[in-house]
């Protein structure tokens, strides 16, 4: 019987205690951060979306080789000797047209290993982390500023140059051969005249 | 209100329709506000913010939700009992709506001035059980059935302490009419039934603690009757998906929802009318002071709704404080604690009233 009244009392009392606690919480400031409007400040060295400053890129392909998941694809074309590509911001001379610089950010594992080998510091991690897409293909970022026809032109130019050079080389080789043959013939002549 | 309206329209039928619509005009905005309030209270009690994005501090959130619910497809599964499935939500809502017929919002604004108001309310709220059972059984879903049966067991057993407490108050006030009961508790708050009625004598002093116990019992059992936490087993989300309204969607689901919130206010209003002076102001009326009759009515409406809203708030407060009780605990609370206490309370109040 005594236990019965104790139970009753405890039932009411504990509910009141609970209600006091929740009432207190009604007036404690909320811990919510209203995400899209307010964002938590990120740490200083966060690793998020990659960015390539293509103006500084010399097309050395070192980042692509460092990437453990092969998410960077680079294609380069040599420039013509007559073309001047300018220099990078830290003074390196650019010699290659970067016709393709694709980063498949869906594959990226945010290891930052591509950032360190870059001789011109043109590839780096930004603090952008909201870049979801509906289509997976939209996650392949093209950093090359050259238009497809431009890069085709560059390729054609280089091909022409290469062919020209080859032709020159061939011509030079031929000339040399001819010269050699002539020489050989002269020597032979001399020899034969000697023997006569 | 009915008499005034039938004079105004010259036809009792139109007057009846108009006075029947008045509670609906109250219920729909109330539900919209109460759902918003519930979410805000829940949020702030858990140190969150609650809805924030639709309108200023999310004020239009429930309006948006309401329209969303209206647009939703009305899904009816193939193996349900269509007839009862379709009737059930409206029956549940009718049950909780009927209660409003006898609630005195002000001294002149009440649906019907019937002498057996309290009896009618208790009887009409019994309709809810039938509706819930119907919904659960016709859904052809084991969770719905569980929820419905739990709800039936719960509501029926908790009706007993409720009725006994009402009986003890009725013994004290000698009337079943809520309007009359509210009228008796006029003037100041110490005249409320919870403080022993309007008469100053020894009875008042003796009866006050027992009236407080009666109020407590009434409040607890009314919580169980409207299936609110900690007695929300019929719709226990973590156990029964959503209980008896698992299979419902769209407008029918919103009917259940509307009924639940209408019920919340109804039981709070009954508690207020029985124990806390109904529509009476706790400190007299400004309208009487400056001699404006119409202002008194407005004040009465204000006091009734704000008292009711306070107890709705307490229901929310309890919801976010207490965990759900088990079924056996629920039955223990009712049969082993509330019913004996209310019986003893009934006897004591009876004896005191006799003295």
What are the key terms here?
heterodimer, A: 196 residues, alpha+beta, Alpha-Beta Plaits, rod-shaped, B: 355 residues, mainly alpha, 2 domains
Oligomer: heterodimer
How many alpha or pi helices of chain B?
13
H/I helix tally of chain A: 3
Instruction: Name the chain pair whose interface involves the most residues.
Output: A-B, 19 and 18 residues
Distance between the termini of chain B: 38 Å
Rg of chain A computed from alpha carbons, rounded to a whole number of angstroms: 36 Å
- Quickly count the domains of chain B: 2
Give a short account of the largest sheet of chain B: none
Could you walk me through the main structural features you see in this protein, from its secondary elements to its overall organization?
The complex is a heterodimer of chains A (196) and B (355). Chain A is an alpha+beta fold and 196 residues long. Chain A has a domain at 50-150: Alpha-Beta Plaits, CATH 3.30.70.3270. Helix content of chain A is 40%, strand content 13%. Chain A has helices at 2-26, 62-66, 148-195; strands spanning 50-52, 72-78, 96-104, 123-125, 140-142. In chain A, the strands form two sheets. Chain A has a three-stranded antiparallel β-sheet. A two-stranded antiparallel ribbon of chain A has the order 1-4. The longest helix of chain A has 48 residues, at 148-195. Chain B is globular, with a radius of gyration of 21 Å. Chain B has 13 helices and no strands. Chain B is mainly alpha-helical and 355 residues long. The mean pLDDT of chain B is 83. In chain B, helix 1 (2-9) crosses helix 2 (12-45), helix 6 (142-173) runs antiparallel to helix 8 and helix 8 (202-225) packs antiparallel against helix 10 (250-275). Chain B has two domains: 1-71, no CATH class; 77-354, no CATH class. Chains A and B meet through helix 1 of A and helix 2 and helix 13 of B.
